[in-house]
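Researcher: I'd like a candidate sequence for this fold, 263 residues long. If you have to choose between options at a position, lean toward the conservative one.
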């Protein structure tokens, strides 16, 4: 069997990725590639950043050659509607016409929903490093993304925004008390879009690093924590989850998506 050709779309701006690398944090693209390689050594990756890469038109021309596309996370907010965000939405529209299998994670799901006519808004609450008690619904139990997944699970997650209106014919697959739509799927023509609001590809250890990296903004700008002591307590909670979590269960959505596109 020939290698699968996978296009990874980087959602963060280049300056954000550079700030990650300066403090030793993997980019989201690096996390995706590492996690996917856990399941297969027969994956050929291309990477594109539609906010800044100049070869976007060249990539547009060969989108139909990819077996699948994964669009990862970002610190952006879709409603800011900056030129960089508009470029991402426009590129997602092209992908939804030409790539048959799309896995859209966190920011990726929000871009996919927006491009398809759904709506994303600032959430009333947020996930910082972890999402608790995600429950798979009836539709989710029958969907291949959750094959062999425990119903009722925690997951790495980091989001302040949420999907509030599904695209046409979109189906919610899982929820928790923070986000009514934790996962979804919808079709556009022959394209199948699976969306996850949480991050199966990112470790809790990286989430802790992101919290420490963003602690000033989390306190001063986001008002998510009162002070550093509250952040330390939250990190301790996540560390407890590390001892309980199972890598195979945490990442099984990635395996299921790869298995689906191998057919």
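Model: Candidate sequence:
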């Amino acid at each position: 069997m020939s290698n699968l050709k996978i296009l990874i779309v980087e959602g963060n701006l280049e300056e954000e990725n550079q700030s990650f690398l300066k403090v030793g944090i993997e980019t989201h693209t690096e996390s995706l590639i590492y996690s996917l390689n856990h399941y297969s050594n027969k994956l050929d990756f291309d990477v594109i950043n539609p906010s800044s890469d100049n070869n976007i038109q060249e990539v547009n021309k060969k989108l139909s050659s990819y077996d699948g596309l994964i669009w990862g996370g970002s610190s952006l907010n879709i409603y800011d509607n900056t030129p960089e965000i508009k470029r991402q939405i426009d590129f997602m529209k092209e992908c939804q016409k030409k790539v048959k299998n799309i896995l859209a994670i966190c920011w990726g799901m929000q871009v996919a929903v927006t491009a398809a006519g759904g709506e994303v808004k600032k959430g009333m609450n947020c996930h910082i490093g972890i999402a608790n008690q995600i429950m798979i619904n009836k539709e989710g139990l029958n969907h291949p993304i959750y094959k062999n997944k425990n119903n009722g699970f925690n997951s790495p997650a980091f989001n302040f925004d949420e999907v509030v209106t599904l695209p046409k014919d979109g189906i919610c697959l899982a929820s928790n008390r923070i986000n009514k739509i934790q996962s979804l799927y919808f079709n556009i023509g022959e394209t199948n879009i699976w969306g996850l609001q949480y991050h199966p590809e990112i470790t809790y250890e990286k989430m802790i690093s992101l919290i420490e990296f963003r602690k000033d903004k989390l306190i001063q700008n986001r008002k998510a924590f009162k002070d550093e002591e509250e952040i330390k307590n939250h990190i301790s909670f996540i560390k407890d989850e590390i001892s309980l979590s199972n890598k195979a269960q945490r990442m099984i959505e990635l395996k299921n998506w790869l298995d689906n596109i191998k057919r």
